[in-house]
Hints:
- The structure holds 2 protein chains of 2 kinds.
- Chain A is mainly alpha-helical.
- Chain A has helices spanning 2-15, 31-60, 74-99, 103-133, 151-175, 179-204, 210-225, 240-289, 295-322, 332-365, 370-373, 385-414, 423-449, and strands at residues 145-146, 380-381.
- In chain A, helix 3 (74-99) packs antiparallel against helix 4 (103-133).
- Chain B has helices at 4-10, 15-31, 45-67, 76-100, 108-113, 138-146.
- In chain B, helix 2 runs antiparallel to helix 3 (45-67).
Amino acid sequence: MDHADKDHHGGDDHAHGHLQLDYQPALPLTLGKTIMWLFLSTEIMFFAALIGTYIVLRFGAPTWPTPADVHLSEPIGAFNTFVLICSSVTIVLCLESIRARQAGIAKIWMAATLVLGSVFLLVKGYEYSQKFAHGLYPQKPHSLIYERANLEYAAAVRQALSAEIMALDDQAGEEGLSEEKQQRRDSMSLLLGGAVRWAEDQSTSLSLSLGEQKAALNLLAAQVRGPVHHGDHGHDEEPGYVSELNRQLGPLQEERGTLELLNVRLLAERRVYVTSADAATASAELEAAQDSGDNARLEELRQTLADAERAVEGTARSAADEGITPVGPGDEADRLADLDGEIEASERELKILDNRLTAIPVLAASHHGWNEDFKLRLPIVVPSGNMWASTYFLLTGFHAVHVLVGLIVFAIALTMQLGPERAGFVENIGLYWHFVDLVWIFLFPMLYLF
Amino acid sequence: MENATGDHDAHGGTGKYWIVFLLLCILTSASFFTYSSYWPFKDTPSVAWAFMMAVSCTKAMLVILFFMHLLWEANWKYVLTIPAGMMSIFLMLMLVPDIGLRTRNYSEERLLHAAEPEVHSTSSHGDPDHDDHDSNHHPSMEHDEGEHDGHHGGDGH
C-alpha cells in the first residue's frame, strides 16, 4: 500500500506542486503479466465456484465421512502441502536467479520445481489408487459405496456373494475345485447363510423391535467394511463387532437348546399318533384277514398288532413323561398334520441357528472386514460416501490437472536458456504455479482435516 | 522491462522468501494443533474448522503478497482481487438456500434413502478429535437392544 501510494504521488513531490502529467500508454505492467493475471482471476472464480460448492454440499449434508472412513491420510496430505510450498519457493528463487543473471542456478531451481511437482502428482496417484482399492469411486459400477445399511444394501451383499459362489461352482463344473477354492466356497456360503441371510431375516423379523432390526443390518455393514481406524493408534485392537458377535453366542446357544427340546417333544408326540395309527391299521388288517383261514398270515398279523400295541404303550409312557396329553379320538389326523408343520418349522429354525452358530467364530476371527480378509469386493456402507467421492475426486482432479499443466510448462522452460530476457516468462509461470499452490492450501484442510 | 520497485526488491535478497517458507511450514503444522490434546474446543468441531480456515487464509495471504509479489504491485491489484473475492463469496451464499439447506425440504421417501449419521459399532473408541459426538452415543444404545437378539424365531411354534 505504502509503495503503491508513493509510486502514485512520487511525481507530485518532485514537481513541487506543478501539475505534471505522466503519459502512460498502458497498465504499469507487461502485456504478458496482464494477461496472466486476467487468466488467474478467471481461475480464482473457477476454483472459488468448486470450493464454494463443496463447502455448501458438505455442510448441508446429513452426515459426512471422517478422513479415516474414506482412507484419507492426514500425514500424506500434509506432506503434499509441504512439497507444494517447497516448489513455490524454488520457482520464486528461480526467478530471483534469472534477475541476478545466474542462468545456471536458475535452471537448477526450475528442475527442482519440476521434480517437486512430479512428487506431488505421484503421491496423489498413490492416494487415488488406495481409494480405488477400497472401492471408493465417484461412480457406479466401480463404486461399492452404499449410503446406509438397509435391506437394499443387504440384498446387494447377498447378490455379490452369490455371484462369487456361482463363479466358483462354474469352475467346479469344469475341472473340480482345488482344495483352496473349495475352502473359499465353504467360507462364502458360511458368510451368506450365517451372516447375510441372518441379518436379512433379523431385519424383517416381526418379533424384533425397529432398533434391533436396524442393529442387525448395522452389524452386517460393520463386518463387511471392517474397523475404521482413527489415527495411527489401535490397529491391533479388536474391532467392536467382535464383542457384539461373541455376545450373541450365549443367548443363541440357549435358544438352540430350547428349540432342540421342543423338537424332541414334537417328535415324541408325533410318534404317539404314528404308533396308534399303526396299531389301528394292524388291528383292521387282522380283522379283515380273520376269515381267510391263512394261519401263518394270521399269526404274523397278530404279532404285528402286539408289536404295535407295545409301541403305543411305550410312546404313550414317554409322552406322559414329557407332559404331553394327546388329543381326543377323531382329531389325530388333524393334529398329525399340524405336528408335521411344526416339526418342519422347528427344524428349519434349528438349521438357521446352527448356521449362525457355526458362522460366528469365523466372523469374529475376521478383524479387517470381509473385503480384506476374504478378498472380496462387497458393497460397503459409507454414509454420504457418494457425495464425498464426487466432490473429492472433482476437486483434487481439477487441481491435479493444473499441476500437470504446470509441469509441462516447466519441462518446456527447462529446454530454454534462462537468461534475463526470460524473466517475464518465468514470472508468469511462477504466478500460475503459486496459484496452484494457493488452491491446495485451501483444499488440504477442507478435504483432509475437516 | 521491470519497473523501478521490482528492481529494487530484486536485490533485497532471497531472505524474505525463506522467512515466508518457514512461516508457511509453521502454519501448516498449526492446522494440526486442533488434533493435539491441548486444543480446548474438542466438543465444537466448528471452532476447529474456523481455526483451520483462518490458518489457510493467512497462508494464502503470505503466498499472494510475497511469492506472487502482490505486495509490491500497483493499485490494479485491487481491481482484480476484490471483485473476484466478492463474487466467490456471493456464489457460495447463493448456493445455500437450495443446496446447503436441501435436507430441510426432503420428502419422507427421500429421507428413507438419505445417509444417516453412522453408528460406530466398528470402533470401540470413537476418535475424540474429529468424530461428531452425537453418533458416539448410539453404539451402546444399539448394543443394549441387540442383546435381546435371542428372541429370533420365537414365534411360529
